[in-house]
TrEMBL record:
Protein name: Acetoacetate decarboxylase
One example GO MF annotation: lyase activity
Taxonomy, superkingdom: Bacteria
PANTHER family named in the record: ACETOACETATE DECARBOXYLASE
Origin species: Cellulomonas gilvus (strain ATCC 13127 / NRRL B-14078) (Cellvibrio gilvus)
Length: 218
């Protein structure tokens, strides 16, 4: 054991709902990206802007772990092979924090989450000191496509010892419209995204997530 909390071995099979937005951001503006990006990997850019996902996730008791999560993910590539690199992420579970760091090099930190509302969801995430990280107001709408959609989500992370860990992951769920408002305090850890408008948003509901089906380290 390499961390303070016990965690299940990979792959993790989780269930939950994801509220996701995509932003266009110059990569140099993304906090923590240099430390998280493995050697040989680069942000995928168009006209100097990269693509950054920000998501609130609630993992259900029907999966291996139950917790809440807020993450920032950057679309990257290794010799034109697309991947995702996560420079910032917060969770409510010490087991998820420990496992994410040890198994896949994902720099998880602990935070608290407050969820409220019915048809209109309101979520607030705060760090261990009680400072605000993000507030989300969201309304999930009608189905975007028939049936369930499977999305590959391969991650590539740089560990503190500069080694690289790649994990092959999949998210499968029902894709629905999402109307969102993100409030990111400019003085907080997501202040580098403050004021940016999403170019697209969607909810993935009743999702099945398989994380770490195959792991490669170098």
């Amino acid at each position: 054991m390499h961390d303070e909390a016990a965690y299940p071995p990979g792959p993790w099979r989780l269930r939950g709902d994801l509220l996701v937005s995509v932003l266009r951001v110059p990569p140099h503006r993304v906090a923590g990206l240099d430390a998280a990006l493995p050697a040989g990997h680069r942000p995928l850019t168009v006209r100097g802007h990269g693509f950054v996902g920000i998501a609130m996730v609630r993992y259900a008791p029907t999966g291996m772990l139950t917790y809440d999560e807020l993450l920032v993910a950057v679309l990257t590539h290794e010799r034109h092979v697309p991947r995702v690199t996560i420079p910032q992420i917060w969770v409510t579970s010490p087991a998820s924090r420990a496992g994410g760091r040890v198994l896949w090099g994902i720099p998880k930190e602990l935070a608290s989450f407050a969820w409220a509302g019915g048809s209109q969801v309101r979520v607030e995430a705060r760090d261990d000191d009680g400072a605000g990280i993000a507030r989300l107001t969201a309304r999930v709408g009608q189905r975007l496509v028939p049936g369930r959609v499977a999305v590959p989500l391969p991650t590539a992370q740089r560990r503190p010892d500069a080694s690289t860990v790649r994990a092959h992951n999949t998210v499968t769920g029902t894709l629905r419209r999402l109307a969102v408002r993100w409030d990111l305090p400019p003085e907080g850890p997501l202040g580098h995204l403050h004021g940016l408008r999403p170019i697209a948003s969607a909810a993935v509901v009743d999702a099945s997530i398989v994380f770490g089906r195959r792991v490669e380290e170098s």
